Amino acid sequence: MIARALIAAVLAIWLGTSPPAVIAQSDDFVNGQVTKIDESAGKITIRHGPLKKFDMNENMTMVFRAGNPAMLKAVKPGDRIRFVPDRINGQFTVTKIEKVK
Hints:
Blueprint: H1 2-27, E1 30-38, E2 43-48, E3 60-66, E4 80-88, E5 91-99
Parallel strand pairs: 3-5
Antiparallel strand pairs: 1-2, 1-4, 2-3, 4-5
């Protein structure tokens, strides 16, 4: 009987905390459009909306380092994307990128 109660409590806690974690992940993505790719430098230029994570509340165009050089081959200038920016070693870096259909 105690084992059932313990399992039920663990499941209730686990199920109760899962949705906010999923929501937090989706909030990290920013919409944008690729304007330039420089594979030799490992950089991508993106026109994007506000980067609230960095208190940047204006639309702008920025150059980012690619967290993984392979991601530069997955997109091309003109593609609409969703991406996750981060600041790594003081440089703005794209850590995830996906095309928007």
